[in-house]
Every structure is written in structure tokens, then in C-alpha cells.
Predict the structure.
Amino acid sequence: MAKTIDQHFEDLRGTRVWRSIFRSGTGSSTLKRALAIQQNVFLHLFSTKVRTRMLSVSATWYLGTLTLGTFLILVATGIPLMFYYHPSAPQAYADTKDLEFVVSSGLFLRNLHRWSAHAMVFLVFAHMFKVFYRGAYRTPREFNWVIGVILLLLTLLLSYTGYLLPWDQLAYWAITVGSNIASAVPVMGEKIHFLLLGGNAVNANALLRFYVLHCMILPLAAMFFVAIHFWRIRKDGGLYSHDSEPATVRANADAAATNAKEGK
Amino acid sequence: MADEIKENDDVNRRQFFAKLGLGSLSIAAAGTAAFAYQYLEPNVLFEPSPVVNAGKPDRYPLGSVTIDVNSGIYIIHSDEGYFSLSAVCTHLGCMTAWKPELNMIACPCHGSKFEQSGKKIEGPAPKPLPWKRIWLNDDGDLLVDRSTDVPPLARDSFVRV
């Protein structure tokens, strides 16, 4: 009798090559399932166990996960866009138009990149509001909130630097206005403005600088802080759930809530 | 007794090398920061010259306000003579426009308004539009130096032909 697909997968998991890569072994015991998470370089950032309640939509609305999703879409669409885009003043606008009208599926990729960028900014804010109103930023999660604020800034900077790249009138004046805001910084504002643009006005140097920031420096920084952000969830006791807080923390939160209700 | 003196004043070999190592790393880090700063600051800029040739004065009839969007300046021919204003809004650097029907200069970005003399009518712009140095060269062309501000309405800030 022919083997089922499941049996083929079972055979694959038993091979020497598979076992040399995934050491935790087969089986669905609690230990084996925990090891599968703990021994995977990507998954070991996360907790090996999660409360079922925390996986429900109502607990988090999946806002953090959705933010990660948009970020992954942005990486997956951004890299192909780089194959057709030259970050040089005479070429950038023409390349953007080529992506829209000439390159196969270029319009789809560019629009997916653009809409995901808007969605990511929205989702980051929504995620932060959800965390704030649930009180999930409280001890011992203060540091992860700070990491979250850094990630918010990185998201906004990614959005801002990407805005210049089409090199049209909207981009040019938006970056002119935005970089002039930077010159309002006391004492070193003019210097920051000059270094950011690589000149006194938005020109070819500014385009190249924003391109490098947008495609290399800021995404790498975002990945670095996202890794810390996820790892801290595990280190701070998993996803926040009021029931799972230590008794003292819970009592404090309850007292604060009561006070707020009574208007003290 | 000997131990106390050692704690207070002496640095043992391990501490000495640790300090030497940290010190060297700090100096190297400061050097790298200075290097990076200098590297990121361009020494040569391929930007247009601040001095703009605005052509012959008779291009600008009496009472006209003419913008040159490429250089970001107005050439205004008033009763007192020719003068030049920066067209770059003092708020966040947008290009303003002359509105003949309103007899004022307005910024499309955030709604700042200025008089023909550059005086601010309405914010958010914090300052009036600066006057720029204007003069006639030997060929009889009007030249404007965008890098030099001159006092508004002053006698020397006009060119009379």
C-alpha cells in the first residue's frame, strides 16, 4: 500500500540530514515541542509556552504580529524595487515611472511597498495604544516599552527617508520641509541639517544619503531592535496578561484602577 | 597597613593594563567618531553659485514682482528702484508665490503671508522674507547675491537705473 503524505514527512524527519539540522527530534510530547522552539535560532527568541488565552484575538488584536508582517512585506517588496531604481538625481524619477509603467509587476510591487509602509505606521501606533491602555508597559516591561519607542522612531524615519526616493515634487518639498524642522534643533540644528542632506539644499547628495539610510542603515537597526523586542517579551514573563501578573503587581494595578474610577 | 596604602594609592598590574586598554580604546573611539564626522561632511559641493544673473533691468516693468523659481528670488521694480527678496519661506523653506490679485506674497505649504516688501502679514513664518544684495555689473545686468542679506528698505538695498 502506498504511503500517505504524512508518512513521507515522517520518513523525511527521520533522515540523518534532517536530524543533523533539527536536533530536537520528532514527537509531540511537551518536552519535544518545547525543544523545537528552544533549539531553533529564530524561534528561541520566543517563549516555549504561551497561554491559550494570549493567542486569542481579544488579548492583543495581533497588532505586534501584524506590524512584523508589514515589515516583512516591506523587505520582500523593497529588495526587488532596488533592482530597477538608481538613486541619482536625473535617473530616480524616470526609474520610478518605469516601475509604474514599464517593469512587469512593478506597479504591484511599488504599491504593495507604499501601502504596507502606511499600514506599518498605523499598526505601530495602534500596537502602542493597545499596550498603553492594557497597562502592559508596567514593571517589569518598562525597558521593552523603551525599545518600542525606538522602533516607532525607526518606523517613522524609514517612512520619511523612503518618501524622498520617487524624486518628484511631493518628495522634494516634503523633505525640504522635514529637514528644515531638523534645523530648529538648538545649537547644532544647522549642522544636523547639513550632514543629513550632505549639502545646503535637497539635491543629489541628499537623495543618495536617504537611499543608503532607507535601504541599509535603518532596516538593519530595525531588525536589531525587533530581535531585542521579541526576546524581552520572553524575559519579562511572556505576553502581558493581567491574571498572570505577580500578586503584588496585580494589587497595585487594581488599586490604581480603583483610584482612577473614584477620581482620586 | 601595607594593604590600606595599596588600596588607596597603588594600581596593581592588572588594573594598570585594564586602564591602559580602556584608555586606548576610548582614544580610538574618539578618533573614529572624528573620522566619521569629517568623512560625512562634504568638502566640495556641486551646488549652484549664490550669485544669480537676473538679466537687464528693462525686463522688469515698474510695479512688477517677478519670481525666478530656479534661484528662489523675487526681483521687484518699485518706485524707489529695483530690489530683491528671497522667495524661500522663512517657516520651513517652501517656495512662496506672488499673488497679484491679493497684492501679497503667499506660501502654499502652511499659509504664511508677506507684503511686497517682505514684511510678514501672517504666520506661521517667524521672520520677514530677507532682502538680498542686488547690484548692476559692467554689462548692465542685475546681479543678486543670495548669500548676503541687506537691511530692508535701506537706501543701498535698492538699485536705481
